[in-house]
Amino acid sequence: MTTLQVRGLHHAYGPTPVLEGVHLDVPAGRIVALVGPSGCGKTTLLHLCAGLLAPQQGTIEQPFAPAALMFQQPRLLPWMSTLDNIALGLKAQGLGRAERHRRATEAALALELPAPSLAQFPAELSGGMQSRAALARALVLAPRLLLMDEPFGALDVGLRGQLHQLLLARQAAQGMAVLLITHDLMEAVRLADTVLVMAAAPGRIVARYAPPGAALARGDALVYRCAAELQQHPQVRAAFGLPGPAQEDMDGLDDTPTHGHWQPVAPAAHPAAARPSCG
Amino acid sequence: MKLLWRLLRGTPAYLWSGWGAGASLLLFVALWELGAGWYGPLILPDPLATFATLQGLIQSGAAWPELAVTARRALLGLLLAAGAGSALGLLAGLSMTASMMARPWVTLLLGMPPIAWLVLAMLWFGAGDGTPVFTVFVACLPVVFIGALQGTRTLDHHLKDMARAYRLPWRMRLCDLYLPHVAAYLFPAWITALGSSWKVAVMAELLATSDGVGAALAVTRSHLDTSASLAWICAVVGSLLVLEYALLEPVKRELERWRRAGA
Question: Is B166's CB within 8 Å of A79's CB?
């Protein structure tokens, strides 16, 4: 099976190590979420996977083509109409104007961008619309691998929920692999088949969590409980710098078992450790 | 077609926005009138007398050929400087080393007085078109170069990463990424260079050639004809204003339409 494989990845900016011994697999058709505190090297890891940085030590095998990257900010070109921004990747592939506009319009409408907004400049769109346009720019390439860097961080709960559903539907239909970076446990639990927990200084994967069932079938209540459960793990609390396990916080919560699967990753991690399995 | 329609639709508003500029120009003319009343016509002829002399020059057919010669030299030098300066500035901006190396050169070139270049040019090129064109070129080159360099250096690295992630080929990077951003720095540089190109061309002609506005100014000076001198100056400044506001400014507005979006 086609799989993005990261093996023994070390990376440093000058003398400061950012990533240490990172192993991870993203197989075709799966969504893997990396959660961790700000500054733990998540973005560096994603940029390494996207080929924007060259690995210093370790290997990254990225067999998916095409791959698309969605950044933390929309990063639309301010001097191009929204439609041209969405079609940017298609233009880079050398597609003709009429054809790329047709596909870009289709992708935009599928993400519920209103048709009149396509002729406008990005600055005239709201933040939510800009995020949709950025997502459309990535999805219009029909990527086999989608790399996402906290893509919905700046959106309100409603918009984020909508885009989550659109993304999951699209992922289910096309079977693409997704590597998603987030610091929001709830977002990770809602979207991912496998959640990898990262700790900072230096960035490393400390645990794996597999939320129960298929992402599309998870209801809100289950997602809340899984996120709460995940947040109780000492490693997660340590990674995010939260004070020790707080049992009393859990008392008021519904304690029906979630059937999520938790597995710590030893410091001397081996390739198998980060391989996803269903909980 | 859409472009033409937009230009036509924008014209009345653009002309209307000229009232402020017109009023401030008229205020300048009023101050000039005041000065003329103070010093008398031998030192400073009043605006009306100057404009009458200018009209006389135009009607006698003396003005156009001289203006055309000066315009040819100024614009040729400017065009060469804008082409070379923009391209070199962009290239230098792409490389950290090149931009660091280029900075002292630019300071050197900007600090060198045009009159010094003129003397050298007279030695090298003699009394033909070469002298004013070369002097204009060297005077304008560093201005345009530094504009292009700064524009290229200030492009948001987030957008550069995006361009790499989406595998934009080099032509797209140039046309869709760098040029639209660099234009915001290039246009003011070109406009500054346009102004200095005319000044330097007239200066070069005054000393080095027998035709053009500069040479005509030399003649009026030897005749102590202040009002003709001022008439020539008005002709040069007038053509400069027309070039900037009828040509460069509308082009700039069209290219930078996106800046006003969402503001």
Answer: no
pLDDT value at A264 more than 90: no
What is the separation of C-alpha B155 from the centre of its chain, rounded to a whole number of angstroms?
Answer: 25
Question: Please, where are the H alpha helices in B40-169?
Answer: 47-59, 63-94, 96-111, 114-125, 130-153, 157-165
Q: Which structure tokens are listed for B92? A: 């230098």
Q: Do A92 and B166 touch (CB under 8 A)?
A: yes
Q: Are strands A204-210 and A261-264 parallel, antiparallel or unpaired?
A: antiparallel
Domain A3-65+144-274: which CATH number of 2.40.240.10, 3.40.50.450, 3.40.50.300, 3.50.50.60: 3.40.50.300
Answer left, alpha or beta for residue B55, where phi above 0 means left and psi between -120 and 50 means alpha.
Answer: alpha
The reported pLDDT for the residue numbered A273 is 39
Kindly list the residues from chain B whose CB atom is less than 8 angstroms away from the CB atom of residue A121.
Answer: 257-258, 261-262
Whole-angstrom Cα distance, residue A21 to residue A265? 11
Domain map (residue ranges) of chain A: 3-65+144-274, 78-142
Domains in chain B: boundaries = 64-257
A183-197, A237-251, B115-129: range with lowest mean pLDDT: A237-251
Write b or e for each residue in B110-120: b if 16 or more Cβ atoms lie within 10 A of its Cβ, otherwise e: eeeebeebbee
* Distances, alpha carbon B120 to alpha carbons B62, B113, B135, in Å: 30, 11, 9
CATH superfamily, domain B64-257, is: MetI-like (1.10.3720.10)
Q: pLDDT band at residue A31, thresholds of 50, 70 and 90?
A: very high
Map tokens 């029909």 to a residue.
A142
Do the beta carbons of residue A147 and residue A69 sit within 8 Å?
yes
Query: What ipTM was reported for this prediction?
Result: 0.81
Percent of chain B at pLDDT above 90? 43
d(CA A100, CA A91): 7
| Residue A92 touches chain B, beta carbons under 8 Å | yes
Mark out chain B residues that contact chain A at CB-CB < 8 A.
158-159, 161-162, 164-169, 172, 176-177, 180-181, 257-259, 261-263
- What was the pLDDT predicted at A246? 58
pLDDT at A41: 84
Average pLDDT on B143-157 reads 92
Measured between CB atoms, does A13 come within 8 Å of chain B?
no
Distance between CA atoms of A109 and A55, rounded to whole angstroms? 38
Which strand (E) or helix (H) includes residue A184? none
At A48-100, the pLDDT tens digits run 998 888 888 888 888 888 888 999 889 999 999 999 999 999 998 888 899 99
CA distance A23 to chain B (A): 23
